[in-house]
From TrEMBL:
<dbReference type="InterPro" id="IPR016162">
    <property type="entry name" value="Ald_DH_N"/>
</dbReference>
<dbReference type="InterPro" id="IPR015590">
    <property type="entry name" value="Aldehyde_DH_dom"/>
</dbReference>
<protein>
    <submittedName>
        <fullName>NAD/NADP-dependent betaine aldehyde dehydrogenase</fullName>
        <ecNumber>1.2.1.8</ecNumber>
    </submittedName>
</protein>
<keyword id="KW-0560">Oxidoreductase</keyword>
<dbReference type="InterPro" id="IPR016161">
    <property type="entry name" value="Ald_DH/histidinol_DH"/>
</dbReference>
<dbReference type="GO" id="GO:0008802">
    <property type="term" value="F:betaine-aldehyde dehydrogenase (NAD+) activity"/>
</dbReference>
<feature type="domain" description="Aldehyde dehydrogenase">
    <location>
        <begin position="29"/>
        <end position="249"/>
    </location>
</feature>
<dbReference type="Pfam" id="PF00171">
    <property type="entry name" value="Aldedh"/>
</dbReference>
Length: 281
């Protein structure tokens, strides 16, 4: 007997929940051939503010967790993503083989960053020589709430910009790829069913031009990753807005997401605390 398929309604991911946009808006998502795939929520400025509130609320607990624990959680996310490999390949678009390879690369990227969770402090921290009877120690600490404009690559690129932000103890608000948001929302479902606390990653779908400047200007956002911004004027406007509270800004760059990522993205959103302590006599 024939039956109607149940069409999925794609929502936002804020604070560990899946709300609709407060504006009630949505936009159609189409395939590369122009075929209709689904409707995705069109996030508003209010949704962006709600996401920042959720990220700030989650920050003390996440940054206070041990680095080893954060690595375990990222590894669990990789496990969950591996378990939904076929679904992600279907939503990735393009050829089936290429899509599966992209999903596999995203899983490997999560495992790679998970392994760095308790090692980055050794790379970024130091015991500094000083001319006096003191210990002088530098240690990395997370910046805080980071706003991320995700690149067009709907899965590997997304994982490659989000994982280094959260593995070092930051929380984030992510603007997903505007033309290809479905893999991002499905990744949010993976995050919601893993051990990642609600609010650590908050995901918005919608227009870059509408959301990015408000996140850049938000006074409770501490860092801004503009990797996915392709409009030079929009990138410049976001940088100007971010200067108001001296946000750390990562400018748009063309990257090969299949290459070795290095540690640059992890260290970009870290602060360094230096402590002086007198030596015993």
């Amino acid at each position: 007997m024939s039956r109607l398929s149940v069409r999925k309604t794609y929502k936002l991911y804020i604070g560990g929940a899946f709300p609709r946009s407060e504006s009630g808006r949505s936009y159609p998502v189409t395939s590369a051939k122009g075929d209709f795939l689904a409707n995705a929520s069109l996030a508003s400025r209010k949704d962006a503010r709600d996401a920042v509130v959720a990220a700030r609320k989650a920050f003390p607990g996440w940054s206070g967790a041990t680095a080893y624990n954060r690595g375990q959680i990222l590894y669990r996310v990789a496990e969950m993503l591996e378990g939904r490999r076929a679904q992600f390949a279907d939503e990735h678009g393009g050829g089936r083989r290429a899509a599966l390879e992209s999903v596999d690369a995203a899983v490997d990227r999560l495992v790679w960053y998970a392994g760095w969770s308790d090692k980055i402090a050794s790379v970024r921290g130091a015991a500094n020589p000083v001319a006096g009877p003191y210990f002088n120690l530098s240690a990395p600490e997370p910046t805080g709430v980071v706003a991320v404009v995700a690149p067009a690559d709907p899965l590997l690129g997304l994982v490659s910009v989000v994982a280094p932000v959260i593995v070092t103890g930051n929380t984030c608000v992510v603007v997903a790829s505007e033309p290809s948001p479905l893999a991002a929302i499905t990744l949010a479902e993976v995050l919601a069913t893993s051990d990642l606390p609600g609010g650590v990653v908050n995901l918005l779908t919608g227009r870059q031009a509408e959301l990015a400047p408000w996140l850049a200007a938000h006074m409770d956002v501490n860092g801004l990753d503009l990797t996915g911004v392709t409009d030079a004027d929009l990138a410049l406007r976001c940088e100007q807005e971010a200067a108001e509270n001296l946000k750390r800004v990562l400018r748009p760059v063309q990257e090969d997401w299949t290459a070795d990522p290095g540690v640059g993205r992890m260290t970009r959103f870290l602060e360094t605390k230096t402590v002086w302590h007198p030596k015993g006599v």
